From TrEMBL:
Signal peptide: none annotated. CDD domains: YlxR. It comes from Mesobacillus zeae. InterPro entries: YlxR (IPR037465), YlxR-like_sf (IPR035931), YlxR_dom (IPR007393). It comes from the Bacteria. This is YlxR family protein. Residues 10-83 form the YlxR domain.
Length: 93
């Protein structure tokens, strides 16, 4: 019997690479159109995944990838919050 647990994989919208879900951060758009960072990965709404990498966030911002994926206007503060979150997580490691 196979006792290994299946690792859920998701695709980073900026880099296009498949990674384990835990290595990515989820950004979600609610039904009301509000965009926020989903730290738990369980909020309801349309979601998109980004690598926990500052370069990936900057690329998504530059090419407006997040806005296209979520079909919503992305506030500048979301990108700032993402970068702070990523830097905070890297300090914990």
């Amino acid at each position: 019997m196979n006792s290994r647990k299946k690792i859920p994989m998701r695709k980073c919208i900026a880099t296009g690479e498949m990674r384990p879900k835990k290595e990515l951060v989820r950004i979600v758009r609610s039904k009301e159109g509000e965009v926020s960072i989903d730290h738990t990965g369980k909020k309801s709404g349309r979601g998109a995944y980004l690598s926990k990498d500052v370069e990936a966030v900057q690329l998504a911002k530059k090419k407006n990838i997040l806005s296209k994926q979520l079909e919503a206007k992305i506030d500048e503060s979301i990108y700032d919050e993402l970068i702070q979150f990523i830097e905070k997580e890297k300090r914990l490691i």
